[in-house]
Structure formats: structure tokens, C-alpha cells
Sequence to fold (311 residues):
Amino acid sequence: MQPTEIEDFPRTLTEFEERFADEQACATYLERLRWPDGFRCPGCVHDHGWTIASRGLIQCAACDRQTSLTAGTVLHGTRKPLRDWFRTMWMVATRKTGLSANDLMRALGFTRKVAWTWLHKLRRAMVMPNRTKLSGDVEVDEAFIACLAPRLDPARNVPVVIGVELPQSGGVGRIRLSHVDNKSAESLLPAVKATVEPGSKIHTDGLASYNGLEAAGFAHTVSVIGGCKDRAIEELPHVHLVASLLRRFLLGTYQGAAKSWHLQHYLEEFTFRFNRRSSRFVGKIFMRLAQGAVATRPAPYRSLVANYYSA
Fold:
């Protein structure tokens, strides 16, 4: 059974501040997002439990497992108030160009380590567990994005597969971005299959790596570019527009400091923002981020920096 869809969010900053003025208000809202149909034990999925107020825990009536509101989520183990998390999520949701760790550090008085860690945790919450693949007419191409390499190695360009859904009404629809190892068929085809619905009509350039798309169940249209940049923009304008905006996003907000091993999460942040660019209320974007936060597994600090020390 699908969980109840929640459409309850503050419309403005004033409404946000009034509604989430204390910890209890934040906890009540977070509990509703995590269990929209009522409490479900994370161990046995039983639907009844009671609150141990003195410890801030909920005990399952069936298996006696005790869990907190934030256990097993992105907020797992946090020692800071929920209000700080809510303020951070609101800032992330309302900044169209993104929020850097330095901005968050200055705004809320965090250390840089806390600000950096929280933003990386929230990027992982931007991938909705039930999100649908692109479908219909889809443009696909790859672009090279400049990233910082491990340790003190110079920056390098890494390939990113861009998929753009083209609605019948025209313009640019939803997007999907995937960091891949290289431009081989072994890298590109799995990325396309993971983000585009079978049966969709995919338009690519003449790169031989895309030749297996028809066998994978897609209708495939090819435009031979021949290395001409102007022709590439003319034939595949939507993916080139997205690539340009992505580079501006990474260079502007993050000053080109995105690490290569974190790139996919920066791509997910850009996707999250881009696909909600026409949302009428920023509060709804905040709600989606909060929903993602309680539906995403923990990302402890040591896992966020593991690749740096193993590089």
C-alpha cells in the first residue's frame, strides 16, 4: 500500500518561522512526514507503539524495539536541535543557486565541518526513493565537468551523462544526470537504462557507444555531429543548455571545488533544484527535502570523507 501523500507545507518565510517556533512543532511535522499513516516499527513494521517521553523514544508494542524519530534517517545521531535542521533545509530549498558550507556557517553559526557535513547529508536526501524515470522524447548526451581530483592532484574533467525529457508542450522537462567513468558503451548504456523508461524515444549524437540503445528497448534517433560544436548545439540544444547551467552552478556556488568522488551528489542537488524550478511555493521544495531526509539512510561523517583518505 502506498503511503498517504502529504501536501502540508509553509508558503512563506514568515509562516515557516511561526509554524516551527519550537522543537515540538518540528518533531510533530517530521513524525508526520516519516509516518504519514501512523507509526510503523522499523523492525517488524507493527503499527502501534508508545512514547517514552523522558528519552524521546518510541517503543514498538509488538517487538519492544525502541527507536527515535531520527533513527535510521539522514538526521541519525544528531545532537543539534531540529530547528537548526529545519532552518538549514529551508535555506537549501529557497536558495535557487545553492548554498555553500561557508554561507551556512555564517548564517547559523556552525563550524565549517558541521556545515559541510550537513549539506552533504542533505544532498543524499535529494534523491526521492520513488522517483520515476524520464519517458517520451528524451535527449541524451555527455558533457565533461571540471572537478577536483584526489589529494593534491590537479583538477580534471570527468564525463557526465545528461538526459533531458522533452514535453509535448515544448521546452525543457525533467532531467537526470549521471557521473560515469568514461564514454564507453559499458559506462553510458547502464546510465541511460537507469534513468530513462524503456520504450522512450532517445535522441543522441553519433557516438558508437550509444549503438546498443535499440537492443536495450529504446527507439533511437541519431544525429551525426562530426565534431562540430555549433551543429551539436543545434541538434541537441536542450542537453547543451543543461550542461551550461550545471557548469555555472558548480563554478558559481561552489567555486569549482566539487570533489570528483562527491560529484554525483552535486549532480543530484542540481537535478533536485532544476526539476522544481517552476514550483509555485518554495515551502513545497522544503517539504520534499524534509521527506527525503526521513526516507534516506544515515550518512555518517566518516563515510563522507572515506574516499579522500583512501585515494
In short: The chain has a mean pLDDT of 89.
